[in-house]
Amino acid sequence: MKLYNSLSRKKESLKPLHKSWVGLYTCGPTVYNYAHIGNLRTYIFEDVLEKTLQWNGYNVKRVMNITDVGHLTGDADTGNDKVEERARTEKKTPAQIAAFYTRAFLDDVEKLNIKRPPILAPATKHIKEMQALIKELFKRGYAYETPQAVYFDVTKFKNYGKLSGQSLKAKITAARKEVVEDPLKRNAADFALWFKLAGHFKNHLQSWSSPWGKGFPGWHIECSAISRELLGQPFDIHTGGVDHIGTHHENEIAQSQAAYNKPLAKIWMHGEFLVINKKRMGKSEGNLITLADLEKKGYNPIAYRYLVLNTHYRKKVDFFWGSLEAAEEALKKIYRSITDFALRWQKNKKVEKFKLSKRAEHYRRDFTLALNGDLNTPKALAVLHAVIDAKDVSLPEKMLLVTEFDKVLGLDIGKYRVAPKIPPEVRKLVEARELFRRNKQFARADALRKKITSVGYEVEDTPLGPFIRRRL
Ligand code: AMP
Ligand code: ZN
């Protein structure tokens, strides 16, 4: 399997660190709001990554953190804690806000056929591990304290900026443009490891005692601490959206490597943005669309998954409603074909035991090659369509292949694999229509077809006789 590593800027073969499993850490949501479809794009990419690893026979140990404290609205340790700000406006506790939006996130995940990460780690449950890491950073001279916070001194870390390719000087210049609320911060690019209940955060709602006084953790430290705790250090693959490259992941790398003198992760993978009218979908842009918005307009969430898979994860997806419409059409075509296969297959029950032909094996290999070439999902989808349309593979082979492919693609193909139960009254209509048709009474046949459509079914005439299926 080849994966593009943002750190080396090359495609690399995956060589797992452990014999029996691959460690995968995926930065999770900050649970203060509904996820937008841009966020969900990143989670779909990560789902495909996990399932591709499994397709290749790897056992995946996947961890996702849930950020329920410490993620500020401003980039340079400024602004408010996002979860807490929401709690204040909604007059709830931060824990209630986090629980509500975690649930909402998991609902979205389920609707998109994203496998729920088996290990979900809320930041607030790992404060001890974060403090241990900060202590280590003090011991090694990377951390310092002001009356307001504990910071990581980026000038002490030799490789700071390696992931993004930005020099420390450029980073510091960029960071200087931000409003710095703590005058004792040594360098503008230093980042907070721990905020104290002081100054701006005097009345912060969530806090824990620590060697540096009561307070709460910065955002970046949670991922370093949680991944080390649950996957060890280093682990195999770390992922997130491209916006994490410049700050969040750079900081995770700096903390973990500085504290333990070992890399944090071997392969870093980043999903590109979903954009709308050339602008990144994001809260500050005011252009958010949620999965619920798509559903309200009558779209199947899986059509959105299809749309996402149709672009390589390292390319931008330019979202517009027309492309969602097209994705839904493509999906319906797949469902129609699968239902027809199921109907035909029923008529040929004998062919249930079979060995894949060379041709069918070829398609399976093409599918694997597409995924293993840095998750080329558009190509994998093309193989799916090729199998459906193929004249050179048998029906049971098609059924078998598409069912297997769907373990990674997650397009709900299984739901259409079973021939639908057709109510007897619909069957009678179809039979009556068939009689009219044979007697060339086409107007009457057409009238019955309309009737069949109006009760939610459609009928297609094929050499094997009429096929009835539920309307999609
Ligand atoms: P957040 O909840 O803001 O931490 O974001 C959750 C995930 O969504 C992160 O991995 C981000 O990198 C990713 N993300 C944020 N905006 C977009 C976008 N417009 N397109 C794709 N991914 C995004
Ligand atoms: Zn993270």
TrEMBL record:
Which biological process terms from the Gene Ontology are attached to this UniProt entry? cysteinyl-tRNA aminoacylation
Q: Does the keyword Zinc apply?
A: yes
Residues binding ATP are: 283
Query: Where found, per UniProt?
Result: Cytoplasm
Its cofactor is:
Zn(2+)
Q: Where does Zn(2+) bind?
A: 27, 223, 248, 252
Q: Which InterPro entries match?
A: Cys-tRNA-ligase, Cys-tRNA/MSH_ligase, Rossmann-like_a/b/a_fold, tRNA-synt_1_cat_dom, tRNAsynth_Ia_anticodon-bd
- Every tRNA synthetases class I catalytic domain range: 15-327
Per its UniProt entry, which superkingdom is the organism in? Bacteria
Q: Where is it mainly found?
A: cytoplasm
Keyword entries, A-Z: Aminoacyl-tRNA synthetase, ATP-binding, Cytoplasm, Ligase, Metal-binding, Nucleotide-binding, Protein biosynthesis, Zinc
Could you give one GO CC term from the UniProt record? cytosol
Catalysed reactions listed for this entry: tRNA(Cys) + L-cysteine + ATP = L-cysteinyl-tRNA(Cys) + AMP + diphosphate
Q: What is its EC number?
A: 6.1.1.16
Q: Where is this motif: 'KMSKS' region?
A: 280-284
Enzyme class comes to: ligase
Which family does the entry's similarity section mention?
A: Belongs to the class-I aminoacyl-tRNA synthetase family.
Q: How does it assemble?
A: Monomer.
**Protein name as annotated:** Cysteine--tRNA ligase
Specify the species: Candidatus Jorgensenbacteria bacterium GW2011_GWB1_50_10
